[in-house]
Structures are given as structure tokens and as C-alpha cells.
Design goal:
The chain is mainly alpha-helical. The chain has 2 domains: 30 residues; 157 residues, no CATH class. The chain contains 8 helices and 2 strands. Helix 5 runs antiparallel to helix 6, helix 6 runs parallel beside helix 8 and helix 7 runs antiparallel to helix 8. The longest helix is centred in the middle third of the chain and has 30 residues.
Length: 192
């Protein structure tokens, strides 16, 4: 048996190899890698409405959870009745609730960006947009205020740039960079 015959037996004929390669190539190319417009819509226009929806859901869930577990005091409590534990837990919950949706969203879009022809461009664009919007949103708990104003939310524009905004901006950026690096460069290492 010649070497050519054994190669054909193992791999198949050249026509079969070409058909398999073409089928795999077409299967792996998706709309995001073929169309710049689809990538623009997905990575520039879509993240902000998705972020806003996730932010509102997280806002409602965190307000309800603080009320359910008793860390958001009832209307009849005086500000002096508020304990240090209530203050710390309520502030921690609001910080996590403001950063978590952005971090998850950025990680998901970074993995999606790895399927495009320009993964770094689209991934970093989404990370930057979501991080900037996250830096200027805020909500928290004001336990000393009137009962109907203890839980507040809204943009933090005009209040000065504080450390919390820096944290809110840095966490989605770091999560996005790590997720993008893993999604883009890990498959390259695995193939070589």
C-alpha cells in the first residue's frame, strides 16, 4: 500500500476534505463577524438599554431585599434607632447592586465580541460605554432621611467625582478586560 493510498484511507479524498473544511468555515462564521452594522448595533446600541433594564431590576430587587430582611428601617423608627450593622449592610448591598449588573453585562458582551472579526474594538467599546454609564449612576440608602426618601437612585452628575464612582467605573472595566482577554487569547493558545 502506498503512502498516498493510506492518507486517502485515513483522511478521505481531497474533495471530502475540502467539503468538510468549507462546511466548518461556514458554520463558524456568524452575522457579527460578517456585518459591521450588526456588530455596531450589538456592541454600541444594545448594551445601554440592556444595562438600564438590568439596573432597574437590580434596583427593585435590592430595595425589596433590604426591606424584607429588615435592614431598611420601618417608617416609625427614629434615626437614633438605626444600628451600625444596618448602615454597613445597606451600603454594601447598594454598592454590589450597582456594580454587579454592569460586570455581568460586560463579561457577556466580551464573550460575544470574541466571535467578531474585530473582537478588541467591539469588546473595548462595550466595556467603556457600560463603565462610563455605571460611573454616573447611583443609588443608596439614607437611613437618617424621611421614610419615603430612605432609598434613592438617579444620576450622580453634579455631586463631584467620588471614590464610589471610581469603583463603579473600574469594576466593569476590569471584568471586561479579563473576560475579553480570556475569550480572545485563550482559544489561540489552545490551538497552538
Amino acid at each position: 500500500m502506498s503512502m498516498d493510498a493510506s492518507a486517502v484511507d485515513c483522511l478521505g479524498s481531497p474533495a471530502e476534505i475540502a467539503d468538510t473544511a468549507l462546511r466548518e468555515f461556514r458554520r463558524r462564521r456568524n452575522l457579527l463577524s460578517r456585518s459591521e452594522l450588526a456588530a455596531f448595533i450589538t456592541f454600541v446600541l444594545l448594551p445601554l438599554p440592556v444595562w438600564f433594564f438590568s439596573w432597574v431590576v437590580t434596583l427593585v430587587l435590592s430595595a425589596k431585599s433590604l426591606g424584607w430582611i429588615g435592614f431598611l428601617p420601618a417608617a416609625k423608627m427614629l434615626p437614633l434607632d438605626v444600628t451600625l450593622t444596618q448602615i454597613v449592610v445597606s451600603q454594601f448591598v447598594t454598592i454590589v447592586a450597582s456594580v454587579a449588573p454592569s460586570a455581568v453585562l460586560v463579561a457577556l458582551f466580551a464573550r460575544l465580541a470574541a466571535r467578531t472579526r474585530k473582537p478588541l474594538l467591539w469588546g473595548l467599546t462595550t466595556c467603556t460605554l457600560v463603565a462610563l454609564v455605571t460611573a454616573f449612576e447611583g443609588y443608596g440608602v439614607n437611613l437618617d432621611g424621611p421614610p419615603d426618601q430612605r432609598f434613592f437612585f438617579g444620576p450622580l452628575i453634579g455631586h463631584g467625582f467620588v471614590a464610589r464612582q471610581l469603583l463603579q467605573c473600574a469594576v466593569p472595566l476590569l471584568v471586561g478586560f479579563v473576560a475579553l482577554r480570556r475569550a480572545v487569547y485563550a482559544p489561540v493558545k489552545a490551538q497552538s
